[in-house]
Amino acid sequence: MPNFRSWAAILVAALLVLRATLSPAAETLPAGVSIPKDLKLPLTVAVGAYVPSHTRQDRFYPPSVGYWIEPGKAIEDALGAVLKQYFTQGTLIAADNADPMGLLLVLHPKWQGEAGTIRLTFKYQVFGEKGAVILEGQQVFAAPVKAMNLTKSFYNAALGASQLAVADVVTKLRPDAGKYPAVNKLADLDPKLIVDRDHPVATGTGFFINATGQVMTAAHVLHDCAYTEVKRDDKALDSRPVASSLLLDLAVIDTGVPATRFLPLRKDAELFIGEPVANVGFPLQPILSASPNLTRGNVSSRGALSGSMGQFQFSAPIQPGSSGGPVVSDGGELLGVTVSTLNAASLLGQGALPQNVNFALDARFAALFLRRNHIAFTEVPANPKGDPRTGNEAALASVVRLSCFQ
């Protein structure tokens, strides 16, 4: 998913060349769209189109422009309109959609800015019965930039690419309801077939919570993931969701592979102010290496932000990607699950520069969550004879890297 800087780069590239010769042609349909005359539109086959949710949510605010630009909405509006134009039952669907369809169209968009144009590439696959790929291809459309209406420029590019991709499917498959009955469900497909495995939309951290290979993490790490890959010692493991709570920001997924090391919870989860802790995660991927990153600090407070409940403050440094990692005592017991940090940038304008103000969900609430969802875990008494080596080893032995794909 492009961040603000990458969107800014796309926009700058697109604005490099703007001439008065730009014509209304940006708003016309692509010249390459041609439908055989014997195909009567709209077609009766039911078509479900999947576009990753993060691309449908893309938006950015260039201060020089002064309004929000929403490439994601441009794709939704343009593709939605084209689907209705070509099919009586054509609709955008989510990865967990269980409605029966005749054809499943999976599209992965990529935006680029070139001199004077906004370019959208749609890489697509069409799935038929039993998850078989019956067609795949790629279509590209570049729309001239309208300097006074950048929103329209993005919409024109999305409309052109959508027309080309859908017309490609129609002309090559010539689909109808008899040929492609509504028996296919996107939710039944192996999610690895529909996601872009080369580009995770987010990464995070988890850790084994029991010997059966179940992994605990922060729920926001798994948000909108069509498929989550677990990596341990460079070995990739499949996973399936088991339980999640947005209120607690806690989730468990199952790898189905036994774990030789896992973290026990401290019995009664008593916290001692000032006690040393280790935090392990996989921050700033892929900028940093894929090896575990261990930091140390102490329990700063039994509370967290004003008004929050169930969290405590700790000082071991964390970075984006550390979410879901364990906060571990020197005795090797799980004390909490990393969920957030104080936003230093937002406070800098107020003259404050907070350092290492980080928050974890208290393991007491993790225990309640696990019991409620009938997930096995172990509790042990606090180990007063623990040392940094014990805590570090316990954390490092149980931690895993998570990658979210859409």
Task: Describe the fold and architecture.
The chain has 406 residues and is α+β, with helices and mostly antiparallel strands. The chain contains 7 helices and 20 strands. The protein has 2 domains: 186 residues, Rossmann fold, CATH 3.40.50; 204 residues, Thrombin, subunit H (Beta Barrel). 20% of the residues lie in helices and 32% in strands. Strands 9-8-20-6-7-11-10 form a 7-stranded antiparallel beta sheet. A 6-stranded antiparallel β-barrel has the order 13-14-15-18-17-16. Strand 6 and strand 7 form a beta hairpin. About 3% of the residues have low confidence.
Structural class: alpha+beta
| Amino-to-carboxy terminus distance | 10 Å
Beta-strand level of the residues, as a percent range?
Answer: 25-35%
Number of strands: 20
Shape category: elongated
Per CATH, which architecture of the largest domain?
Beta Barrel
Mean pLDDT: 89
Percent of residues in helices: 10-25%
Give a quick account of the main beta sheet: strands, pairing sense, barrel closure.
Answer: 7 strands, antiparallel
pLDDT < 50 stretches: 17-28
CATH topology of the largest domain: Thrombin, subunit H
| Rg calc | 25 Å
- String of helices and strands: HEHHEEEEHEEEEEEEEEEEEHEHEHE
**Number of separate helices:** 7
Task: Please state how the strands of the largest beta sheet are arranged side by side.
Answer: 9-8-20-6-7-11-10
CATH class assignment of the largest domain = Mainly Beta
Count of spatially separate domains: 2
